[in-house]
């Protein structure tokens, strides 16, 4: 299929399914069934097996037609992390069960990876899954879980073999958050909000049919998920002067009386770095479209966190005493998180979490050093197992 044939297919679909007259969920289901959800996914799973690079134009054509979206800000973990992982490692039955309601937003997903004693060292997690007939009984605690208070399903990594090296004894599961034994508690952040949660798993039974990948392959599957997460956070498509640099540039233009040569120099330097990061993100997405995603996503995520923190700090300095004001510290549990939303005080505080969530900057720098630059690896308990073998 050519790009022109794809455009015609979209036009024909819109003629049959007028967005203004079709109920939202009915429209999204029809779009998925027509292969116009993820066009690079296989036929029968919301796609047509086409180049991923065409996805942006597909979404633009639907947006211009006034079509409803699938709430990506609420279900970012499902769309950006769970879906590509299920496609890569799931059985046909799992793909049929989970991908359609995930894409339409009928089922929201969260991520049960980090633990109080295993955040940066994910392979050191202690949550246990023990086989009991056709089920796995899971016990443990997860932390920093975005959206757990409204998610229906979760991607979960648990230890199934405590005697194996820590990277080898893990298995990956799909966990129903409504099952007995799943307890979600809010974690209030420095912003006053509680977008994160801690999750306690007490004798939660997960059927073996919800195991993703082979037994003991949890690290391999989780690595694929994390690579997608880092691209989703740090390498997402943005226009020139989009994101935080656009917010700070607008603040600069609107406050000429606050400008100084030193602030001007810093803004110019950060503007250039943000543009370089945006262009590098395009390259990463092109590699992803060709199925060649590697550890480069770690570098994108580190850069995203650093720029967000430096730019938000610059904005507070630029605004002076006005930047010290904070509009609302009410405890709420939001569904949507906008790094550039609200006021300068919120942006400054929220950016502090960017270097922790989605992989700490310290760990991601290790990944870049060892797997991109080829520098000597730091000591590990399983140092005799190369990175390339850990991901097999």
From TrEMBL:
The keyword rRNA processing does not apply. Keywords: FAD, Flavoprotein, Oxidoreductase. Its cofactor is FAD. Residues 216-373 form the Acyl-CoA dehydrogenase/oxidase C-terminal domain. It comes from the Bacteria. Belongs to the acyl-CoA dehydrogenase family. This is Acyl-CoA dehydrogenase family protein.
């Amino acid at each position: 299929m050519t790009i022109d044939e794809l455009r015609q297919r979209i036009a024909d679909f819109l003629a049959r399914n007028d967005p203004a007259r079709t109920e939202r969920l009915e429209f999204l289901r029809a779009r998925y069934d027509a292969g116009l959800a993820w066009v690079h996914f296989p036929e029968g799973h919301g796609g047509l097996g086409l180049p991923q690079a065409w996805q942006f134009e597909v979404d633009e054509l639907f947006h211009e037609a006034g079509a409803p979206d699938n709430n990506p800000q609420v279900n970012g973990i499902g769309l950006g992390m769970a879906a590509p992982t299920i496609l890569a490692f799931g059985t046909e039955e799992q793909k049929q069960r989970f991908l359609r309601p995930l894409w339409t937003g009928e089922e929201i997903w969260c991520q049960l990876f980090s633990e109080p004693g295993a955040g940066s060292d994910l392979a050191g997690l202690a949550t246990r899954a023990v086989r009991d007939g056709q089920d796995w009984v899971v016990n443990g605690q997860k932390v920093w879980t975005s959206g757990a208070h409204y998610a229906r399903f979760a991607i979960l990594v648990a230890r199934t073999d405590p005697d194996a090296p820590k990277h080898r004894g893990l298995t990956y599961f799909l966990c129903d958050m409504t099952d007995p034994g799943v307890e979600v508690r809010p974690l209030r952040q420095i912003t006053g909000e509680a977008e994160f949660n801690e999750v306690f798993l007490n004798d939660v039974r997960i059927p073996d049919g919800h195991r993703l990948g082979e037994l003991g392959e949890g690290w391999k599957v989780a690595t694929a998920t994390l690579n997608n997460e880092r691209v989703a956070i740090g390498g997402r498509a943005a226009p020139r002067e989009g994101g935080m640099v656009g917010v700070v540039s607008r603040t600069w233009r609107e406050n000429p009386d606050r400008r100084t040569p030193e602030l001007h120099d810093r803004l110019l330097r950060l503007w250039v770095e943000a543009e370089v990061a945006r262009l590098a993100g395009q390259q990463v997405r092109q590699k992803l479209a060709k199925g060649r995603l590697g550890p480069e996503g770690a570098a994108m995520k580190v850069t995203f966190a650093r720029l967000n923190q430096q730019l938000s700090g610059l904005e507070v300095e630029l605004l002076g005493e006005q930047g010290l004001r904070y509009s609302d510290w009410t405890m709420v549990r939001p569904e949507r998180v906008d790094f550039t939303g609200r006021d300068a005080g919120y942006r400054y505080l929220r950016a502090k979490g960017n270097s922790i969530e989605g992989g700490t900057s310290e760990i991601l720098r290790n990944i870049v050093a060892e797997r991109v630059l080829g520098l000597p690896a730091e000591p590990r308990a399983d140092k005799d197992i190369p990175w390339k073998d850990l991901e097999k």
